[in-house]
Amino acid sequence: MSVPSDSPRILVVGINYAPENIGTGKYTSEMCEWLTARGHSVRVVTAPPYYPAWKVWDGYRPMWYRRERISEVDVIRCPLWVPTKPSGITRILHLASFGLSSSLALLWSIGWRPTHVVSIAPTLANAPMAALVARLSGARGWLHIQDFELDAALDMGIVEAGPMKRLAMGLERLLLRSFDRVSTISPKMVERLGKKGVAPARRVLFPNWADIDAIQPLSRPSTYRQELGIPDDAVVALYSGNMGLKQGLELLGEAALRLCDEQRLYFVFGGQGPGRDALEVQCAGLPNVRFLGLQPTERLKDWLGLADIHLLPQRADVADLVMPSKLTGMLASGRPTLATALPGTGVALALERSGRVVAPGDVEAFTSALRELAANPSVRKALGDAARSQALNTLARESILNRFEQALLAP
């Protein structure tokens, strides 16, 4: 596609990108492809695909700088170190390796004369160079925060804070002030930006979206039921997505153990990540549990429609530090969600009319709520209808990206 020479040139840097199809990579890719279709010139500096398996995908090894074109988007891949089992210092080194390698590609892109530089967090490791390149290019700098990785690392104990916590938080505040705009994905997370010193005029709500046309409520049993040997009249509780440290997956295993006597209730756990092995061990031998890997995008309607109840466990210490990206598709599928979250947090507010929310880590309450939902199809139907209505009213991709474009290009 020919792009006019005077069109905006938008340089985007983020560690995750297509062909990764979950989490941050999905949204960054869809945003860049949408902007390109609108006639803007877009260049992306990113890493080889590795998430959520924490292993560089076939076809991208050996790693070095490489360039490719995906849906008319110019993509520069930068090498990085990927630990087999990410935790603590290895996660920091992983992010730092991309921050270092992406710096070279960002500096080289100054010659491309970007008009806008958008840095996606995670990871903040690429943000300092993005801010510098914006300054050197005379471009407008935009930082988009998908999760507050520093807060999460400190609160979850992934990183020991010690006396460095105040220094780290101070540096983060300086970094946030170096961008013209700072956006994030939920109202509660926008509030947190204010606590970090970002002025109201520079704060932007830029939520994740759902493909409400591709993901719709099923009017028939999902094809996955036959593939997994699950009767059409059984109730399926589905967890889908990354199986990492922030999810509190042990709650799912405990619920499956406690409800193994419910012969009509099946658990399906689909995804990859460092927490999957422990969950499989916890559920070993349970006849009502099925495990699958990540499913292809073209089957997403059937995959999410497999659920009678979506499961969304979260640890209490990540409340309002992240807003699970998977929630948009769950709402669009027209099924209720059972989540763990504290009252007043982003997840709790999002599911006020379309799900059930219990306290994080409360196995008894989670199991009880799941048993109640499984036994009440009329309640599930009402909550699912509310979920679909919520998605139609608030999660349409075109509407969200139109507002983002207007804010991005505003003088």
Compact summary:
The chain is α/β, with parallel strands linked by helices and 411 residues long.
Please, could you describe this protein's structure?
It contains 15 helices and 14 strands. The chain has two domains: 9-209 and 396-409, Rossmann fold; 223-394, Rossmann fold. The longest helix has 20 residues, at 89-108. Helix 8 (250-258) runs parallel beside helix 9 and helix 8 crosses helix 13 (363-375). With 411 residues, it is α/β, with parallel strands linked by helices. The mean pLDDT is 91. It is globular, with a radius of gyration of 21 Å.
CATH H-level superfamily of the largest domain: Glycogen Phosphorylase B
The CATH level-2 architecture of the largest domain is identified as: 3-Layer(aba) Sandwich
**Tally of contiguous helical segments:** 15
Q: Structural class of the helices, strands and pairings?
A: alpha/beta
The 3D shape can be described as: globular
Count the E strands: 14
Do you know the CATH topology of the largest domain? Rossmann fold
Oligomer: single chain
Order of helices and strands: EHEEEHEHEHHEHEHEHEHEHEHEHEHHH
* Fraction in helix: 25-40%
Q: What is the averaged pLDDT score?
A: 91
Strand content: 15-25%
Amino-to-carboxy terminus distance: 27 Å
Largest sheet, in brief, is: 8 strands, mixed
